[in-house]
Predict the structure.
Amino acid sequence: MADLTPKQQEAAALIASGKTQRQAAEAVGVSPQTLTGWAKKEDFQSHVQALLQPAHAGVQTALQGLHQRAAEVLASLLETAPPATKLQAIRLIFEINKATPPAQDAASSYEEFMKHFGQGLTHASQPKHHH
């Protein structure tokens, strides 16, 4: 916060709280052009960013918590959901991670998949025999 005036500090705080430059200018008693000039200065920008940092950290923490919860829900679906829902959960996990099983592990991946989730799939996928 190098050499910001009290008005500049207040304007930076207002902008960091979500006010527009025009609203902040009006609140501190300067013209929008003056505030635009302040906003171009590195000291002013750094002060706004410093004021936003705790909010960004809070959002990051909240997102990490939601990510963990989403992973728990997907894990639960893999354990308890019907086969079609399990497949959707697996597809979503791969899509989120932008990953697919490596080619050399395809057979073992298939075996592992069938060991965990195959019971419900075999009935639907087996051809029906007519006697």
Observations:
- The longest helix spans residues 42-80.
- Residues 100-104, 119-131 have pLDDT under 50 and may be disordered.
